Amino acid sequence: TLTVGYYNLQANSLPGIRLWLDGNNLDADTTADISHNGEPLADGMAIVQWNDGSGNTNHTGQATASNRPTHVAGGLNNKGVVNFTASQTMDIAADSTIRTIAAVIKQASTQNAVAKPFGGNQNLTNSAQNFALGGTDSGISTTSYHVVVWQFTSGAYSIHIDGKNKGSSSSSLTPAAFDKVGNDFAGSLAE
Predict the structure, then answer these.
(1) CA-based nearest residue to 109, from 123, 132, 125
(2) Are 163 and 140 in contact (CB under 8 A)?
(3) Which residues on adjacent β-strands are paired with residue 76?
């Protein structure tokens, strides 16, 4: 039995990473946050910018105050998360080269609509409140935190949850550029 108590990812831990957002480290420096946008960080504080820790400086942002997500300091295992309503989103530079998205994510129990949390044209949740990829239903509820990995290439789609393959597809749909964080998703993103 191998037990890992703590592992600290670094920008170079995953070669080729295009974007890395951490709800416990909004400014993407080497420490957990105590302030945001010049103010002491507090639960419910609106997030103006969520910095990219991958080294690619693809920071997310939201200029419109009413569209900004909020921060919860101890949202998951005493670490920060970012909460979204379905009308709150952050913009990122559109990236059509992204072919894998990994997220620690939980959908609000009040949202049963199909959602595209990262923009683009890929449905990543379904109306049954399960994680999905297009028409592939993982059978795993979105209303608890899970580590979800979606992989997309024309003709080969797959979804893995908590390290287990939960479905694949041979769809010929070409993934559109991912350009949002939040988008039409209501819930929490930890990373």
Answers:
(1) 125
(2) no
(3) 79
Reported as a single tens digit per residue, the pLDDT across 37-71 is 888 888 999 999 999 998 889 999 999 999 999 99
Cα→Cα distances 185→117, 119, 152, 164, Å: 5, 10, 19, 23
CB atoms within 10 A of CB 27: 16
Laid out side by side, the sheet with 178-181 consists of 49-50, 60-61, 90-95, 178-181
Strand segments, DSSP code E, in 31-97 are 35-36, 39-40, 49-50, 60-61, 70-76, 79-84, 90-95
How far is Cα 31 from Cα 181, in angstroms, rounded to an integer? 22
Angle among Cα 92, 97, 100 to the nearest 5 degrees reads 90
N residues, the chain: 191
CA-CA distance, 102 to 104, in Å (whole number)?
7
DSSP type of residue 66: G
State residue 174's pLDDT score. Answer: 79
Q: What is the dihedral of CA 160, 106, 82, 184, to 10 degrees?
A: 90
Question: Cα–Cα distances in Å, from 83 out to 9, 18, 153?
Answer: 22, 22, 29
